[in-house]
Design goal:
The structure holds two protein chains of two kinds. Chain A is mainly alpha-helical. Chain A has eight helices and two strands; from the N terminus they run H-E-E-H-H-H-H-H-H-H. The chains are: A mainly alpha, B mainly alpha. At the A-B interface, strand 1, strand 2, helix 2, helix 5 and helix 6 of A face helix 1, helix 2 and helix 4 of B.
Chain lengths: ~350, ~250
């Protein structure tokens, strides 16, 4: 009978916490979305920045390849015929010499971006990735296997009971046998259920603390990353892609007489592909920006959920979850009360 | 009122225009070396500039010069024909744009006054389809602040105090303030590199100030007394500023 009372008490406690718990489950779900979306945004932006660097390298190689006067170095000095009377056909690169009459010299950076230009972007990606990792650490926290622990505990008690039976000569029921019974199993399940709810509450508390501590920084980092992609990135990618196509075109113009028709065709094909890649640049940047927007929205959704502002859908899910849980708890209590 | 994003966008739009010309068969192969070189130099200068600055700098003079130069070059390039003189003129404008992107911040802060009062033109649509939408024209109130001579308006009560009822001194001081408006706006409406001032904007500012002075009895009173003078001329001033803003929109 006393065990029945304990079970009822546990069931009542579960009911008391159920409403809050369902909201916690919804909050954790939004946290999971925020974590996944943040990680996806970091992945997309990282891949985009890497692609820009790769395109810069390819463009630099194509530029150097277009003229024998250019060396494969990170900084080149080129001369451009700005005046109408400049004599055509001068070498593109000049090193340590003055440009020819009618030409203007420019110093250009080609190849990989300098480290100081990359560092702010790396810092942004790292800040968001750290946050996503911290969220994942909370959400993936391994749950304790309550039923296994209880069974182990019952084993110990059982041994102790048999020993005390032996000493006292009384006839106590086997505790292990009690735990193995259907009622005992229901009891274990109820405790595991209560533990699950407690774990949800703990995780929600941890997520709330994390969002309070670094949510603002992540929001700013996401906004800044968005700008880096749409403003810096799109232009830089366009410059690299255009330079690649232009340098190939330059090679074609200069060497077309000495190339075989197959070589000309191959080069022309590369030029067309390069032009197409360049035209698709804005769409690629927009896709990455969308991924970042999604993460920013998920982050706002998480804040809303933590602040108790659930959307209509979330409320419906929480209500459904409450009903499921009450049914589950009732089922467990019923099987405790009515042993077959 | 120029930010990092404005300057970068202006440079990117110019780069896009230049790239379209590099690929334009009307200019091939005659102008290829020229346009290719400029496109490459502009791209590099733009990347360097974009890496050296950030949007956290807000509305800084360092962004005004690149914005202006790129805009000027873009305007020239919009109707570029494949002849030597036109392309050379365009090339010189692009060269100035590249130079403004390459200049250090220290050099650019010097002419901070130049261009601060200029009205920003609405951009022409981007050349490449599917690109960003053109920025909005300047808001009404920003134009109002730039066209109405706020400094002169704050100086005027001082002039009244100094004149102390003497009509001649008052008129002389009004003339001095009007001159001050002209000088301030002469530089304020110039482009960063110098060049032409916006004479129309200066004229509007001076007229606004004179109307304001008249409404406070600077040129004597209407037959109905100070009250009527103030009310009639205040009405005229407000209508003038409102109408002139509707009319004087940049091209």
């Amino acid at each position: 009978m006393r065990r029945m009372d304990a079970c009822r008490l546990a069931a009542c406690l579960c009911f008391a916490g159920l409403t809050g718990c369902a909201a916690d489950a919804v909050r954790l779900e939004t946290a999971r979305t925020a974590q996944a979306d943040s990680r996806a945004a970091v992945g997309a932006a990282g891949a985009y920045f890497d692609a820009i660097e790769q395109h810069r390298r390819e463009a630099a190689a194509a530029l150097v390849g277009s003229d024998p006067s250019c060396l494969p170095t990170a900084r080149l000095r080129i001369q451009v015929p700005l005046a109408p009377d400049a004599s055509p056909g001068a070498p593109l690169c000049i090193e340590g010499t003055e440009p020819l009459p009618g030409y203007t010299a420019y110093t250009i950076d080609v190849g990989p971006s300098p480290r100081e230009a990359l560092e702010p972007r790396i810092a942004l990606l790292a800040a968001i990735a750290d946050y996503a990792d911290a969220l994942a650490a909370i959400l993936d926290e391994p749950g304790e296997d309550v039923s296994a622990e209880l069974t182990a505990f019952a084993d110990q008690l059982d041994r102790l009971a048999r020993f005390s039976n032996f000493v006292a000569g009384t006839d106590l029921p086997g505790i292990n046998a009690a735990v193995q019974s259907e009622q005992g199993q229901s009891f274990v399940a109820l405790i595991a259920f209560a533990d699950e709810l407690a774990r949800e509450a703990r995780q929600t508390r941890d997520v709330r603390a994390l969002v309070l501590a670094s949510g603002g920084t992540v929001d700013r980092a996401l906004a800044s990353l968005h700008q880096q992609v749409t403003s810096w990135g799109q232009g830089a990618a366009g410059n690299a892609d255009d330079l690649y196509g232009n340098a190939l075109f330059r090679t074609y113009l200069r060497d077309r007489a000495s190339l075989t028709s197959e070589q000309r065709e191959a080069l022309a094909n590369r030029i067309f592909v390069a032009r197409k890649t360049a035209r698709e640049g804005p769409a690629r940047a927009a896709a990455v920006a969308d991924a970042i927007d999604l993460a920013a929205r998920a982050q706002a959704g998480l804040r809303n959920a933590l602040g108790g502002r659930l959307t209509a859908d979330q409320r419906r899910v929480a209500a459904q979850l409450n009903i499921d849980r009450i049914t589950r708890a009732l089922g467990l209590v019923a099987s405790l009360a009515n042993p077959l | 009122m120029t930010t990092y994003a404005d300057a970068i966008k202006a440079a990117d739009d110019l780069a896009e225009q230049l790239q379209a010309l590099v690929e334009d068969s009307r200019f091939l192969p005659r102008f290829f070396d020229q346009l290719f070189g400029l496109r490459t130099a502009l791209g590099s200068a733009r990347d360097r500039f974009a890496g050296a600055h950030s949007d956290s700098e807000g509305d800084a003079p360092v962004f005004a010069a690149p914005y202006d130069r790129c805009e000027q070059a873009s305007r020239l390039g919009r109707s570029l024909s494949p002849d030597d003189v036109a392309v050379a003129r365009y090339a010189a404008a692009v060269d100035r744009a590249i130079a403004s992107l390459s200049t250090d911040a220290a050099d650019n802060t010097r002419p901070a006054l130049r261009g601060t009062l200029r009205l920003r033109p609405a951009n022409a649509p981007a050349l490449r389809p599917g690109h960003r939408p053109p920025p909005l024209a300047e808001p009404y109130y920003a134009s109002l602040v730039k066209l109405f001579p706020v400094k002169a308006v704050t100086l005027y009560p001082l002039a009244i105090g100094i004149a102390a009822g003497d009509a001649v001194i008052r008129l002389v001081l009004i003339a001095v303030i009007a001159l001050f408006v002209v000088v301030l706006r002469w530089f304020g409406t110039q482009e960063e590199s110098g060049g032409d001032a916006d004479l129309l904007a200066i004229g509007i500012s001076v007229a606004s100030f004179l109307l304001y002075a008249a409404s406070l009895g600077g040129f004597g009173q209407l037959p109905g007394g100070p009250e009527q003078t103030r009310q009639v001329l205040a009405f005229v001033t407000i209508m003038w500023v409102a109408l002139v803003l509707a009319e004087h929109r940049p091209p």
